[in-house]
Amino acid sequence: MLSLTDLVPDPAALERIATGSTWAEGPCWIPATRALRWSDIPGDRILQWHEDTGETTVYAEGVEYPNGRTLDRDGSVVQCSHGRRRVERDRDGVVTTVVDGWDGVRLNSPNDVVVARDGAVWFTDPAYGITQPREGHPGEREYGDHWVFRCGPDGEDLRPVVLDVDEPNGLAFSPDGRVLYVASSSSAEPVVRAYDVDGARVKNGRVFARLHDDEGVPDGIRVDEHGDVWSSTHRGVTVFGPDGTRVGDVRVPEVVANLCFGGASGTTLFVAATTSVYRIPTTTRDAAAVS
Ligand code: MG
């Protein structure tokens, strides 16, 4: 197993590259424009930091409280919308619905999303966007729970796949796509759970890793090319090895909501942390970048 300094040679190299968000979430590296895109959820806008200039610009405003996002294989961006209670696709600024309901009722408020190797869209659907006034619009849990769903690239064949996570939030696949990790943002049980993927189903759910008492709850997670799981925490980013062993943590001076790998080399870790976005060099990259 790699050590933290194998992965992050200089933990002190953390650099704040942008600030002024209210609650920064959903970072995603956009290779075509060499930009990091993220959501300022209560600010109801999407921001971008441009690697070439170091400048931050507003990508879109009045966008119905978007949250997590991921790059699809065709270069479009799949993102979650609290306000529209849907998963949507942004292709060159044209935003369309992927899916917004299940079994005749609305979703809660999709939070984070990942695209699997076969193009299927997997997303979590907790209730923050309908229970937290700053993050969406008040509403009911119309199917009475909060699950992880899977659907085809255009929203077809939507089905619940994970029903046993207290507060499902971030999610990511192992490098071989055979394990799904789901973060539970439950203060009573702040864990990352793991599931074996069997086609469109999962089985053998178990606790993969647990945060310490002073780390708060996990939110966004990413998996690197070695199978390490990088979890947001209230004090930074904690890294777990493929077997769940704790590798170490990168301290960040604000509560971290989410993270992603990116940059020209793919090895920069970007961290969305409350009002700011930080970056730090690593020696690894996202598992999806090498599959
Ligand atoms: Mg989240």
Count of individual helical segments:
3
Shape: globular
Could you give the order of the helices and strands?
A: HEEEEEEEEEEEEHEEEEEEEEEEEEH
Low-confidence runs: none
CATH topology: Neuraminidase
CATH superfamily: TolB, C-terminal domain
Radius of gyration: 17 Å
CATH class: Mainly Beta
Give the percentage of residues in beta strands: over 45%
Tally of domains: 1
What ligand species are in this complex?
magnesium ion
Question: What is the residue-mean pLDDT, rounded to a whole number?
Answer: 97
How many angstroms does the end-to-end distance come to?
20 Å
The largest sheet has its strands arranged as 4-3-2-1-24-23
Characterization of this structure:
By secondary structure, this protein is mainly beta. It has one domain (7-289): Neuraminidase (6 Propeller). 4% of the residues lie in helices and 50% in strands. The protein has helices at 4-7, 128-131, 287-290; strands at 15-30, 35-40, 45-50, 56-61, 66-71, 77-81, 86-91, 94-99, 101-102, 105-106, 113-115, 121-124, 148-151, 159-162, 168-173, 179-185, 190-198, 201-210, 221-223, 229-233, 236-240, 246-251, 258-262, 268-281. It has a six-stranded antiparallel sheet with strand order 4-3-2-1-24-23, with no helix packed on it. Strand 2 and strand 3 (45-50) form a beta hairpin. 49% of the residues are buried. The model has no long low-confidence stretch (mean pLDDT 97). Magnesium ion binds next to strand 5 and strand 15.
